[in-house]
Amino acid sequence: MDYKSEMKALRDRLNEAGYRYYVLDDPAMDDYEYDRLLRRLEELEAEHPEEITPDSPTQRVGGAALESFAQVEHPVPLESLQDVFSPEEVEEFAQRMDEVLETAAYSVEPKVDGLSVALEYRDGVFVQGATRGDGRVGEDVTENLRTIKSIPMTLPDKLPRLIVRGEVFMPKNVFHKLNRRREENGEAPFANPRNAAAGSLRQLDPKVCAKRLLDIRVFNLQLAEGRTFASHSETLDYIASQGFQTIPHKVLDKVSEVNAEIVRLGESREELPFDMDGAVVKLNSLPDRAVAGSTAKCPRWAVAYKYPPERKPSRVLDIVVQVGRTGVLTPKVVVEPVRLAGTTVTNATLHNQDFIEEKDIRIGDTVVLQKAGEIIPEVVEVLRDLRPEGTEPYRLPEVCPVCGAAVVRDEDGAFNRCTGAECPAQLHRNLTHFASRDAMDIDGMGPAVMRQLIDKGLVRTPADLYFLTAGQLADLERMGKKSAQNAVDAIAASKTRGLERLLFALGIRQVGQKAGKILAARFGSFDALAQAGEEELTAIDDVGGVTAAYIREWIASPQSQHLIGRLKEAGVSMEAAQQSAGEQFRGMTFVLTGALEKFTRDEAAALIEARGGKASGSVSKKTTYVVAGENAGSKLRKAEELGIPVLTEEEFAAMLAE
Ligand code: AMP
Predict the structure, then answer these.
(1) Residue 280 beta carbon below 6 angstroms from any ligand 1 atom
(2) Which residues are catalytic?
(3) Which of 129, 176, 329, 400 has the most CB atoms at less than 10 Å from its CB?
């Protein structure tokens, strides 16, 4: 077989296997065989790049990243749907249809909670896909859509032009996995599968989108040049015959059946791979749709039924507190198990102290639960009449339930937070932050390695990193001997990063990179900072009262002191980097006189020392500069006598900033 025919045969076999797997959910080829054939195709394509076709399965992994999305005008607008909220409103809709039609039949479908897209094919080849946008103009997300395996790249029928519309979504199981991984990596989780799908489809880099494993259900034929159909269900059958995953639907002609089907769909939501945010009822006959017409925004021939959030009462067995990875205490009610919108609910978040107080939720109460956004259960209200005797208002604990450190309220009062620098609940996040590039910059010690170190009990505080051996690290998964040694070297190298980075790395509230630098420059050493009183801290530009209080609190806490002690023991530098490396004032002696506005004498002296200079109390021939503030007296005169350069406070500050 020549290479062209072999490439075509491979493409056909792989595409058929993909269709069986992703569209029919009926795999016909094992993964091993698939990967083997795919590799062969990749080899041939590498040899003959001019033979790569757009329908090749290799083109689904995502091409080059885009700068921005181009705009696409939709030849057939992507309309909205009118919402209805009760079976009665569905009946009214049916009555309106009956007024203009002899008889009517309806298609009832789940309303997929995702993003609407239009897919365009020319002569049977996928050429463009766009988001809905405002319905008339959307964004060109063709490259991202190519990564969705259930979208066929070529169709058996080669109509000159065909446009279908469907809903892209992130399957629920993919969503849960993705969020778990994001949390693990310290990234913000997505609120729901819809947001996750939207975020993925709008990635400029299709490779990112490819990893998100999006899926689609096609629910409408927008345009098919050269074909006519009598009904919606016929179009769906046709679309399915072209290799698409179509929306499950039932055609019914009595409104009572429609309402029953809506109920049945609602009950089956758990089994669906996508989130459902309603049921759509549409006229099935296409000529009938034309008779019913459209308003400016919505078709008159369809409505979207919105399910009321299901609510159920249950008894509060306990209120427990979880400590999040940032130290925030989140209270949860543990309730008697209750079935709610398709899942068994055993607990619900109470957010924070204010939420508990506002609703006055107590252990023993009966509360009404509902699922917000269909996912997270929440407490709607307390049934006061059912409150047993002897209950008490609930207050969050004042010490961390995990580590026993003091709990403080955030400055804005929303959250209560554990202050333990070595709190196990925060350890993973603290470690990854500690080692991150802008902090101690320890190469090769990412979130996954840290997780293993914690799970194996090798690391209980960031300081423990410095006591790890290459042998211990080499035992970890995906860590060879060589990378273990590299990690040990990187850890050792981080000892001399200096106070500014260390302060940032410690994760003291409100102490970011900038504050770390300012504090290090001002105090020169951790011990000097530890001695500083609140007033001294607050006097520093850029350090407010709140930050000063956090710093003092942090330093005073026993866990912090233990941590600092261990870091010192490990030989981690507690001095400002400038001081060890600082050469700016090396060999210079400064004398300070008069009142400085921006610094106290001690601070100015610390800054000079941090730059390798000396601060002296008396002027002599050896003095390099005299810094003269307000009302400078005899020292200034002496300097003038000896011809020593005199700096104003501004000039001195400018030198420091160099
Ligand atoms: P809305 O945006 O709330 O007016 O609802 C209309 C949206 O529902 C459409 O833009 C589609 O994206 C979406 N949708 C999901 N599933 C279906 C379906 N089976 N039929 C029609 N629209 C659907």
Answers:
(1) yes
(2) 111
(3) 129
